[in-house]
Design goal:
Blueprint lengths: L13 E5 L7 H10 L3 E5 L5 H8 L4 E3 L1
Parallel strand pairs: 1-2, 2-3
């Protein structure tokens, strides 16, 4: 459904990552920060909570 006031609408940038298997390249953090992501979705095979904690330092994370 479109916003009633188009001037009030804003863009959102969502970071998407998957299959880190417990390893997170520091460049991912750099890219997400540079892009200004406001949310991150991690899709499968996280491999360890430390990956999610590192991503949470950038933006809220949803793991699916």
């Amino acid at each position: 459904m479109p916003a009633e006031n188009p001037e009030a609408a804003h863009d959102a940038c969502v970071g998407l990552i998957s299959d880190t298997h417990g390893r997170l390249d520091a460049r991912v953090i750099d890219v997400f920060e540079a892009a200004g992501v406001s949310a991150i979705v991690h899709a499968g095979d996280v491999g360890g909570a430390e990956v999610l904690y590192a991503l949470e330092a950038v933006a809220p994370v949803t793991a699916v």
